[in-house]
Amino acid sequence: MDWLVVNFFPVHRYISSPVHRFTCLPDTQTNLTKYLNMRKKIVAGNWKMNKSFAEAEELITEIADALDEIELTNTEVVLCPPALYIEMATDVAFESNFKVGAQNIYPEDAGAFTGEISPLMLKELNVGYCIIGHSERRKYFNETNEFLARKVDALLKHDMCPIFCCGEVLPEREANQHFSVVTSQVVEGLFHLPVEAFRNVVIAYEPVWAIGTGVTATKEQAQEMHAFIRGLIAGKYDEQTASDTTILYGGSCNDKNAAELFAQPDVDGGLIGGASLKSEEFLKIITSL
Ligand code: PEP
After folding, report:
1. Positions marked active-site
2. Can you list the domains of the chain with their CATH numbers?
3. Which residue among 271, 277, 281 is best mutated to probe the pocket of ligand 1, counting the most ligand atoms within 8 A of its Cβ?
4. Residues in a beta bridge with 101
């Protein structure tokens, strides 16, 4: 019955931190988490390369104002604007109920890497998350799993959470290779981590054929892959770590289909592209969780 005792721990201190896992908790706290099945839910907006500064400010303010009126339980909202708007976003976030994420980093603290942004620079701006391994970066910038593993390490070194994207392209799904593709991405990008570090990672399953296409994975397809990824984590680490890992779905998720996707037992929220660019739609997605 030790879980009763831990009701006196200030759980919110741990849950509200960007690096949100429970690695620093006493065993009793871990038991409470297990008992209540409290893995964190997240809705993250990936704005990609969109919006002027004024439009970004307007959108962030609308979302922040609306979030002031919404009670979120064990749910984090993360906005990932273009890098130039991060400082403005973190200023607003300071007094609001959302976290700020970046869309990319370079995996070095500093140096001769023209045009790049280091994790230290983001950390200084209070950034809590960073999208890693998005299919657009894999495709247009030739980012390999090996390189992504370095980015993951660089973020964790500075206490920021990677939102690690994985997912197959259409020909891979049609050839029934989607499980092996996702396995390689997860194994090569993440499974070098010791368990304590891994517990700070968020995974986003984003079938590439669903990103920006208006074609969403069915709830069955999403659930099947999320359960599969959770199984991989249990095999590499342990059941508790698998159960505690937040796994998001991404790919044409919108205010019409979010509720049924999020209702799947292994879908813990979404990484939202296009639908995160309109406050009303994004807020409906958040409240579908
Ligand atoms: C994304 O780019 O991560 C994404 C999920 O995009 P969309 O929601 O527009 O498909």
Report:
1. 134, 206
2. 1-38 (no CATH), 40-288 (3.20.20.70)
3. 271
4. 129
> What spacing in Å lies between the alpha carbon of 125 and ligand 1's midpoint?
25
- Maximum alpha-carbon separation in the chain: 56
> What does DSSP say about strands 202-205 and 247-250: parallel, antiparallel, or unpaired?
parallel
Q: What is the pLDDT of residue 197?
A: 98
Question: Residue 253's pLDDT is what?
Answer: 98
Task: For residue 136, give the ligand 1 atom closest to its CA.
Answer: 2
Could you tell me how far CA 204 lies from the centroid of its own chain?
6
> Hey, is 64 helix, strand or coil?
helix
Torsion of CA 191, 197, 200, 202, to 10 degrees: -10
Residue segments in the chain with a per-residue pLDDT below the cut of 70: 1-37
How high is the pLDDT of residue 38?
Answer: 77
**Assigned token pair, 219:** 């709830």
Q: What is the 3-state secondary structure (H, E, C) of 71-98?
A: CCCCEEEEEECCHHHHHHHHHHHCCCCC
Q: Which atom of ligand 1 is nearest to the CA of 252?
A: 10
- Residue tagged 């990824």 (tokens): 229
| Protein residue closest via CA to atom 7 of ligand 1 | 273
State pLDDT tens for residues 70-102.
Answer: 999 899 999 999 999 999 999 999 999 999 999
State which ligand 1 atom lies nearest to the alpha carbon of 254: 8
What is the reported pLDDT for 115? Answer: 97
CA distance 188 to 135: 15
Ligand 1 midpoint to CA 196 (Å): 29
Q: How many CA atoms lie within 13 A of 181 on its CB side?
A: 20
CA of 253 to the centre of ligand 1 (A): 7
Q: Residue with the nearest Cα to atom 6 of ligand 1?
A: 273
What's the CA-to-centroid distance between 289 and ligand 1, angstroms?
17
Classify residue 21 by its DSSP letter.
S
